Amino acid sequence: MNVLPVGDDALLVEVASGEEAEALHAELLRRRTEGALAAREIVPAARTVLLDGLADRARVAAELAAAEVPPAPPRAGRILEIPVRYDGPDLADVAAHWGVAPREVVRVHTDTEFLVAFCGFAPGFGYLTGLPARYDVPRRDTPRTAVPAGSVALAGPYTGVYPRSSPGGWQLIGTTDAVLWDHTRVPAALLSPGTRVRFVSRGHRGDG
Amino acid sequence: MTDRALAVVRAGALTTVQDRGRPGHAHLGVPRSGALDAPAAALVNRLVGNLPGAAVLETTLTGCALRPRCAVTVAVAGAPCPVTVDGRPVSWGAPVGVPAGALLDVGPAGSGVRSYVAVSGGVLVEQVLGSRSTDLLSGLGPPPLCDGAVLALGRPGGRRARVDVAPQPAPPAELVLRVAPGPRADWFTPGAVRTFTSRAYRVSPASNRIGLRMEGPSLERARPGELPSEGMVLGAVQVPPDGRPVVFLADHPTTGGYPVIGVVRPADLPAAAQAVPGTPVRFVAVGAR
């Protein structure tokens, strides 16, 4: 665990893997809930957790430097199901990258339990992990200027769902009607770090 | 429509509703947003007797013109500018009474970038995650003002301040930004780190509420590639592939993959919000507190 100071009142805690970041994030949330950690923001990311707005940074840094990354707690809580039509314009390209038929992409994607590792890019945009590393895909060479809201997409090791129409370079494999972000809803974000997700097929290209 | 409202006669280049923003939601990808020159926004609220969290208007370079449908107290501060009511000059940086139906004109900034306009009762647009701020990165909050828009106002609470003209810092002729090194200074060559804190930069016209972009020497990386995405803080100086530093302001993205060479002291960011394009910039290395 590498603890880096950021500005005057933040720490960036760097670990070796996404799994360790998930475990550290869970531990830091637990400490904040217990009142043992005063932080305005706890922001998990790919290999790090950022603690911003720390009341007593020196003490937190010393505690973290002396700590081991805790083992990941068992995943608990219900699994959110997101219905998807696997009709994305890049489904064939993804299948080619994987060296399988498009139907097999759908099977693998719907058989995988995902976890929202972190959010970013836009409110409610989650970076979901769960696919084995052999299914990593590159971003598109030329990003699209407008990706429709609800697009289910792959890039690198991640699956994501676009909460609203925006430019994007991810590979689009499908579409969902699920509302990823609604600021009048509580909670506004359908996906937050730690949420377990399973995608459920509502059909794919080539189906009658 | 209630008569506690404000009609937008001239929206100006970019006028947004701002309050203290929505910190605490970065883990959902939600920027903090809020007034860039927070002390100026707090001052105008105090001058008209609003609570500190009331929403104000933030103009950009060209001001705006407003017609309240009821008698209000207003105050304009931040970037100095001419202020008139029905064509008559009134005080900048002080509470001013505006009769119902009169035209309040907030003129172009004589120096600085952003003027702040508080109206007694505050601007009452819908709150999103506890804030009325417009966030230009994510689109949360109300859209920027447009000509003809009508904004509801809250009930006035406190008394207006008894001051003639409140003292304020002048917009910077040279912007000096104190910067704590890291967390990714080791991604740059030692020469680049020296360049960053010794050479002169200028504020780029491409700057906005997301970031203050720099023109000047490119900072050479000691290693190629991108970092895995990591959390970003206000004031982070991120260096994209073109090597020119960007200082993150209130609408900054919550995560990013370009390395952060240092973090600007929060106390120096209000001046950064008032630095016009072309302003000379120096980054001065300081130790972390």
From TrEMBL, chain A:
**What's a Pfam family in this record?**
CT_C_D
Write the record's keywords in alphabetical order, separated by commas. Answer: Hydrolase
What sections of the sequence does the record tag as coiled-coil? none
Under Gene3D superfamilies, the record lists: 3.30.1360.40, Cyclophilin-like
- GO-annotated molecular function: hydrolase activity
Q: Sorted alphabetically, which PANTHER family does this protein's record hold?
A: 5-OXOPROLINASE SUBUNIT B
Q: Per its record, how is this protein called by name?
A: Allophanate hydrolase
UniProtKB/TrEMBL annotation, chain B:
**Transmembrane segments annotated in the record for this chain:** none
Q: Does the keyword Transport apply?
A: no
Listed SUPFAM superfamilies: Cyclophilin-like (SSF50891)
Task: Provide this UniProt record's keywords sorted from A to Z.
Answer: Hydrolase
Q: Which InterPro entries match?
A: CT_A_B, Cyclophilin-like_dom_sf, PxpC
**Name listed for the protein in its UniProt record:** Allophanate hydrolase
* Listed NCBIfam families: urea_amlyse_rel
The record's annotation in Gene3D superfamilies points to: Cyclophilin-like
Its source organism is Streptomyces parvulus
Q: Single GO molecular-function term?
A: hydrolase activity
